[in-house]
Amino acid sequence: MVIESLQSTLALFIVISASLASIAGIVVLVRFFNDKLKDLFSDSTYFIFFFLVLGYLLYSVGEVAYYLSTVVSESSSSMGIQDIYWSAGALFILISFIQFTGTTLRQSHDTKKLTIMAVAGVVLISFTLYLLFSMVSGLQSPFNYFYPIVSSLIVTFALSVLLFYSEIRGLASALMFFFLASSCILVADLLFSYSFTTTMYDTFGILRDVFYLLGYGLSFVGFIALSFRMRK
Length: 232
Prior knowledge:
82% helix, 232 residues, globular, mainly alpha, single chain
């Protein structure tokens, strides 16, 4: 009974934190873009933040859908409408960080840092694939493979925030929160996939929800940090 109560409470907090992150992102988007959305594809900065915010908005809608289906309706289905929102959100965030990486590389021309990021990415993705196909093989839904893989790609490209920290200056501290958030969501996605190999909400289930909560919470702080940065 205590475990079930904890699961419901954590699920509710995840929905709230994801929603707060998306709302904060929209506020930043409106303030930062103003009436310049028409220039979305002619300015990489607008492109990056528009897709980042859109990704987190879709994440939050997915969390609401997941909460309603699993907690309110008590559905045990391995797939649902939330998977569409989560998948689209992850792809938008990935596109955002790919664009950010490309922009910073074009400005710095630092091939050494590109090599470091590529090697780190290969190691991270290989480790993720190893865990998925050896330790949690036989998963029912293809989404359980998709989420950790796309999250590992997001973290790989978000690593450019660390590598080019000194070059991005004013945005560095805010973007660091998004790197940390993406890392937490990757861990949570791996635990999410593992949780489908057991019917019990155990320690791994609790850790999964805690990491999702941390991920969305850090994203919220990141958007707030961006908002304060824009006021200066």
